[in-house]
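hiii, so i know i said id send this last week but things got crazy w the move. better late than never?? heres the sequnce for the chain we talked about at the cafe, plus the structure i predicted for it. fair warning i was half asleep when i ran it
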Amino acid sequence: MPNKNDILRILGLAMRAGRLESGFDGCMKAVSTGDAKLMIISRDISQNTLKKLTEAIARSGSEIGAYSFASSFELGRAIGKPDRALIAITDDGFADKLDKMLSEYDETEDDK
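okay and structure toks below
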């Protein structure tokens, strides 16, 4: 079973490979161009930002998987940036890997 650090490590790899967009503007661009394959949404995202994101995804007509995971501080640190509430994975391989890891992730296991 993957732990939080395993998932954050994969996000860092995707960043270094140039296979993700982060922040509101980057993620909105990835959604509108159809490049977003998977969304990672911080657990502390503002309701206003989340509403704008879900409206943009609905307008795009795309089926984009999304997970609420980690804090914006942790997501930003994982990709070498300041706090990030949104990350869009733009590569099928990374999206598939992270989708599998996040679906198996049990946050209560990290507390043990």
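btw The first strand starts at residue 20 and ends at 22. thought thatd interest u
miss u guys!!
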